[in-house]
Specification:
Distance between the termini: 10 Å
Strand content: 15-25%
């Protein structure tokens, strides 16, 4: 699962999610999963405070959530490895 943080916009995979609904969506998604790993992609124009606010909501929604921050370089080299590993965990 990939959470994308753009300036004033959030997406879970390809679906837009309002900030106010993020906690409920994450609880619903991860409530039925064994492994609670969330890949987080942040666009460069997003403020640090906005990222912290979103990550705080995610961590509070699913207390044992593992957050993996993706940088552009990591996405190019590791995204296939990470997503393949996540498919095996589901």
């Amino acid at each position: 699962m990939v959470l994308t943080i753009q300036q004033h916009s959030l997406k879970i995979n390809y679906d837009s999610v309002p900030f106010e609904s993020l906690a409920a969506r994450l609880k619903g998604i991860y409530g039925i999963r064994y492994k609670h790993v969330l890949l987080v992609r942040v666009y460069p124009d997003v403020s640090f405070q906005e990222v912290v606010d979103v990550l705080d909501v995610a961590q509070r929604a699913v207390s044992d959530m593992e957050l993996v921050l993706l940088t552009p370089r990591e996405e190019k080299t590791a995204s296939c490895i990470l997503t393949d590993g996540l498919k095996k965990m589901d």
